[in-house]
Amino acid sequence: MANKKRILSGMQPSGPLHLGNYFGALKNWISLQDEYECFFFIADWHALTTLYEDPRKIKQFSYDVAVDWLSMGLDPEKCTLFVQSRIPEHAELHLILSMIVPVPWLERNPTYKEKQTEITNVDMSSYGFLGYPILQTADIILYKADFVPVGIDQAPHLELSREIVRRFNNLYNKRVFVEPDAKISEVPKLNGLDGRKMSKSYNNAIYLSDSEEEVRKKVQIMVTDPQRKRRNDPGEPDVCNLFPFHKIYSPAEMQAEVASTCRTAAIGCTDCKAKLVRNMTDGMRPALEKRKEIVSNPKRVMEILDEGSKKAHKVARETLREAKEAMQMADGFPS
User: Is residue 247 annotated as a catalytic residue, yes or no?
Assistant: First the structure.
């Protein structure tokens, strides 16, 4: 591990993971675990920004996320899986950094205003939500991560973490923290059943834990080409909600066939969906089989998180000690 660069990323346990989460992040994580020293965490403190009214859900959601991770292929022998709240150094470094970060840096974060508009069922005007990029920065720099895997649209968000690192290192005249770089990955655009972004809050998601029957039912109600109102109307696959899923799950020959027969109206949306269901269920079946094995032994899931949290805690504790030494705030009194 000594010669490997370090990766860090996390996911909020706000509900079961869906295909958008998998193709947007998790699939990339799985591919990185052989090449990098990877730390992946369940961001349960971050989940409080939207679940603060009923935090009891977070514990179950955290377990569900761990099961999703293991089912899809994250290997605890290759990467460190841990729970954010088990590492108190995240909260302590967050507090320290919050004292040096100017409020305008946080207010210019585009996500701050976007989420307040997007999420209407929860009051998002809390300090915790405004300051979540500081906690996010603490999450990353405690482990001196070289890279954070993100989609290209998320890369600008990482720049705030880099600014905070530079401010800390300059203030205390010591290079304690590493400026994390973005590890850009290609993310396929997958919308939900209704054509909007796939999201738990929109109730339009296909979940990694869905049974084959649930997948079939959901595909059947997916919106397709909005211009194709009748069976004999020609369609356009590039604007159809189904075709990105065909690009993932169907062989190249079938993709070409579906595109051609859609454009000539030789195939209807019902037939197209039937082909997609067969390929999707075939593609998702191995993970569902592995899930059955994992959920049959919940004790082992908790052991994996316990072991990973202990390993992460050692790293975080040492980094925070270095930070406090640089600030001349290390434990103890002057001699």
Answer: no
